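Example 492, ligand NAP.
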Amino acid sequence: MSAPHLTTTLPQTMFINGEKTRSAAGKTFPVFNPATSEELAQIPDASESDIDHAVRTSKAAFESDTWRNMPPAARERLLLKLADLVEQHTDELATLETLNQGKLIGFAKMLEVSGSVQWLRYMAGWATKVEGTTFDLSIPFPPGTRYNASTRRVPAGVVAAIVPWNFPLLMAVWKIAPALACGCTVVLKPAEETPLTAIRLAELAHEAGFPPGVFNVVTGRGETAGAALVKHPLVNKVTFTGSTEVGRIIGRQCADDLKRVSLELGGKSPVIVLDDCDPRKAIEGAAGAIFFNHGQVCTAGSRLYVARSIYDEVVQGITAVADSIALGSGFDAATQMGPMVSARHRDKVLGMIAQGKQEGGEILSRDARVERDGYFVRPTVIANRACKPLSVVREEVFGPVLVAMPYDDLDDVLGEANASEYGLGASVWTNQLDKALRLVDGIEAGTVWVNTHNMVDPAMPFGGFKASGIGREHGKAIIDSYTESKSVCIAY
Ligand code: NAP
Ligand code: MG
């Protein structure tokens, strides 16, 4: 089936052991264009036996001479080649992403594809820099014995990577690039809503020369395919990005199996505007923090705290921005915000807005409901002047919904910012260095931005405090996440 804006056929198979693969039972599920509600393709609905096949393939690849004995520099070259291929396929990959996920084509190119290229190149460099240490031992037993002791870092094994639908290609690359750099093999399950770019990524990895079975993509539903992958006994490490609810399920399973696990989960990130901040800068910054990628960002700045002296001006300004945003297809140059990823998600977001209103929030922006095809939600600003514990203040919406509270005192706002089960990101908007640093010190979050929000980089660790997850991605620390430490002790 070919699709509008695409000259090639849509990817419609899994990719296992270097081959396009259908589900053995022939079962499929549909994926949609969220801007039109049209069905795009039927994708394999993997069963437990399909997952078993993919994991066994991945295990065999892990143990094969070609991968195990491949010099690190050769792994680096493969990742660099994959980065080049992704870059050369920018238009195709971005088109697939916009078609299937709904995001703006410009962002798909600039952030999703170009970001993937950057991450692949950065992680390629780590392949040759995995290292251990040597040290002297203090216990001479039996007497007179000497020891030569060291550690080496060895690949963790077969990695199960499970990713969500908000940045389908980039999230896949955040998992596979470090895993492959470290010498692991991977079975990746994209979200059921957005599997197309992940499948294409695996095809490109094959073209780059990765041995068959080293990087596999399975498609299917979380409760079946995802769960079967997590509990497969040949999987050594699970890396997951998605909701806290599913993160808990996966964490429990991995605890039972004693598997290594990293969890990148939900957020309810505070944006704190101090009284010295230029209101225009605050409006632009806070609107960007919540409306970027239609609010479907784990670090979305969804709780806004503004110094009371400038609260009205800032909140009115953001409401004007929200009301002026042009909704439409991500392919249309005039569009400033695309649809929610699915009908189910649109209904969840609309339901949470309605609940916020019912609990006493004041909706300042236009009606969030949109009468047109596709899964659109109009950006929404909710004033919560009385700082009530609304559900929309506590729970992750994952949509373009901002709730705004005034504050009087820095200690109070710090308390409010931390009064959340989440701790993923936060931003502080001020030029007062002492106050900025006091907030940086006090905020319980994996990343605190000052005068910016949502900035990520392959060199900068990323992850959550509290219910926002366990572990950090990116940077040097990622090596520990995909390797085991092996101590070697030689008596002489
Ligand atoms: P989700 O259920 O957490 O899905 C994330 C990934 O996990 C998907 O690939 C999903 O597969 C898979 N999965 C689901 N249940 C699983 C299980 N029992 N075992 C193994 N894998 C499983 O997220 P969602 O349903 O797409 O979205 C629900 C809410 O999660 C959103 O409204 C949002 O609040 C939040 N969310 C957060 C993030 C984040 O980055 N923090 C990302 C996405 C969503 P399926 O796609 O087949 O379900
Ligand atoms: Mg789901």
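Summary: The chain has 16 helices and 24 strands.
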